[in-house]
């Protein structure tokens, strides 16, 4: 594979499926998706739970929560809704947060995904 592609940039052969205007329009549509204060509080509670977990050296940051909220809004839009739900947050939490969590050295028998699953199980959406 390296030999076949070392002098050719395959990206140059990619066909665009959306214009820049399409992407900007989609981003604007995501921004318009409604998020309730309760859902914002749910995201914050999940973040706090990751930071309070004894297995975690560095938990999910406020920036991680912002990105989780944005991803949840995009999922809602893709599902045809104008509002995000706790199900959107739960569906994306691991994908968005797992690489942002640093475990304690003593927690070698677990993973960030397990920490997030535990946070989801112990944090009610109100």
Give the averaged pLDDT, no decimals.
94
Strand content: under 5%
**Helix content bin:** 55-70%
Give the SSE string: HHHEHHEH
Strand order of the largest sheet: 1-2
- Main β-sheet description: 2 strands, antiparallel
Measured distance between first and last alpha carbons: 51 Å
> What is the tally of beta strands?
2
Low-pLDDT residue spans: none
Give me the secondary-structure category.
Answer: mainly alpha
CA gyration radius, whole angstroms: 18 Å
Given the structure, what is the number of helices? 6
Name the shape in a single word.
flat
Summed up, what is this model?
This protein is mainly alpha-helical. It is 57% helix and 4% strand.
């Amino acid at each position: 594979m390296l030999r076949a592609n070392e002098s050719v940039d395959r990206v140059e052969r990619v066909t665009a499926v959306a214009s820049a205007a399409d992407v900007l329009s989609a981003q604007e549509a995501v921004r318009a998706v409604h998020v309730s204060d309760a859902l914002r509080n749910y995201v914050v509670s999940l973040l706090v739970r990751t930071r309070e977990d004894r297995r975690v050296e560095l938990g999910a940051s406020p920036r991680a929560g912002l990105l989780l909220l944005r991803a949840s809004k995009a999922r809602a839009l893709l599902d045809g809704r104008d509002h995000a739900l706790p199900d959107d947050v739960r569906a994306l939490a691991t994908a968005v947060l797992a690489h942002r969590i640093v475990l304690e050295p003593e927690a070698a028998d677990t993973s960030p995904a397990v920490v997030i699953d535990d946070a989801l199980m112990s944090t009610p959406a109100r």
